[in-house]
Hints:
With 95 residues, the protein is an all-alpha fold. It is 79% helix and 0% strand.
Amino acid sequence: xxxxxxxxxxxxxxxxxxxxxxxxxxxxxxxxxxxxxxxxxxxxxxxxxxxxxxxxxxxxxxxxxxxxxxxxxxxxxxxxxxxxxxxxxxxxxxx
Length: 95
């Protein structure tokens, strides 16, 4: 009986080669389908794109607010854990 490690290696190599050949054949056979599909994209009008842009901008603002809140919470928790450090800390906006 053959070494199980060798059998596993041979089966893996044969499987990888078969999977690669299948992928190449599929891409060659369906190359024409991809060209036809790209022309069938829906037309987006300017109003719809403007709404999408405003929505993405709003999401970006909210993500920034959440990250600022997280930084503040982390700073407060760090100061609670080490009160001496909070006493010796310089003010961030010296005015």
